[in-house]
Amino acid sequence: MTFVNSSRLLGQSVVALILLTGTLVPTAAQTPGEKFQDCPDCPRMVVLPSGQFTMGSPANERGGQDFERPQRSVTIPYTIAVSRFEITFAEWDACLADFGCNGYMPSDEGWGRGQRPVINISWYDAKSYVAWLKRKTGKAYRLLSEAEWEYAARARTTTPFSTGQAITSNQANFNGWVSYEGPPDPEGQYRGKTIAVGSLTANAFGLYDVHGNVWEWVEDCWNDGYSGVPTNGSADTTGDCGQRVLRGGSWDLDPEFLRSAGRYWIASVFQVDYIGFRVARTLAP
Predict the structure, then answer these.
(1) Which of 68, 72, 126, 179 is the most exposed place for a label (fewest CB within 10 A)?
(2) Residue ranges with strand state E in the chain
């Protein structure tokens, strides 16, 4: 009888998997900050820690809105993985090639596909991509809740932006001719379209483009404020579900719309050139 060294076999399997995919595919909860992909065409993910934060904008925040209040303490009691980048055209096209995403080919407006964020995506389109990811990987991919999104964007900061009290067009893609602090920015850029994901600087959690480039769909239905909505990281599904929440601002907007607390809403069926999305996956309690 021949006995097999199981640890050696496991090690060989892991090596083969790394050679096949170029990354180590996780099988259990991971360490905060760890990066992974569940398949070669899947989004590149980063693990965020559990934690607590204050959601919403204080009354004195420039550009803040009443529907970003009242501020409340939110606890994310689980480890979550979030896509490091907004979902790209390349990732969407991989879904199409695998007979997913309802066969929908969104326009790139002539700006280019590849590593630019996918645009002209409705909330329902984003959900179809998530359904394909779940089918392909067997993992519980989903959109972020609004609370998770703000937690991820803030990355433990309490300032209007994860970059601090202000933001520049060297840090995010937006109408950089306008300064958040008031006067025009003579050195700012207005690019007039999306740019490739990861072109600028990541926040402290390793996430790119949480400010600007494209608005990002989240799971939540729209509510005109935070009174009575969940404080445990889950999505709010009690509001106007014909309108879904957008987060992060976009390439065509002034900086006040890019604030970590900034939020907006639009009909779930809209497909426009300033909206995309990113994805999440819960890893462990």
Answers:
(1) 72
(2) 35-36, 45-48, 51-55, 72-76, 79-83, 141-143, 215-222, 240-247, 263-267, 275-277, 279-284
